[in-house]
Design a protein that fits this description.
By secondary structure, the protein is mainly α. The chain is built from four helices and four strands, in the order ββαααββα. The strands form two sheets. Strands 1-2 form a two-stranded antiparallel sheet. It has a two-stranded antiparallel ribbon with strand order 3-4. Helix 1 packs across helix 2. The chain starts with a strand and ends with a helix.
Length: 115
């Protein structure tokens, strides 16, 4: 039987790899951070991403990942947005804002035309 080991992408510790690239200790830490966000959002429905990060101590990038993964729902949180992965503009769905999606579509179309 082969042990599948890896270094945790967060802390660098060696651990037995499963589905994720994160060790069990970092998974627990991340789950605790998620729980802090969920509790805060239940009590403060109008919170923005910046407010949520400042009040919970959870980084904006981690909160954005929670949203993209569907762990934090934007439904009922009208002020909650997260940054486009390309330009940083505030968005409420997907990974890219409309203008970045259109720019990429145009670039793909021009590449296809040249080929």
């Amino acid at each position: 039987m082969e042990l599948n080991v890896a270094n945790c992408v967060n802390c660098g510790k060696i651990f037995q790899k499963t589905i994720r690239n994160v060790c069990p200790a970092c998974i627990r830490k991340e789950d605790d951070q998620y729980e802090r966000c969920a509790v805060y959002l239940r009590e403060h429905r109008g919170a923005s991403l910046m407010e949520l990060s400042e009040e919970t101590g959870v980084s904006i990038s981690l909160i954005s990942r929670f949203i993209r993964e569907g762990r934090i729902s934007l439904a009922g949180h009208s002020a909650l947005t997260y940054p486009c992965q390309s330009c940083g503009k505030d968005i409420r769905s997907g990974n890219l804002c409309e203008s970045c999606r259109n720019r990429l579509r145009g670039e793909f179309a021009s590449i296809q035309e040249t080929e």
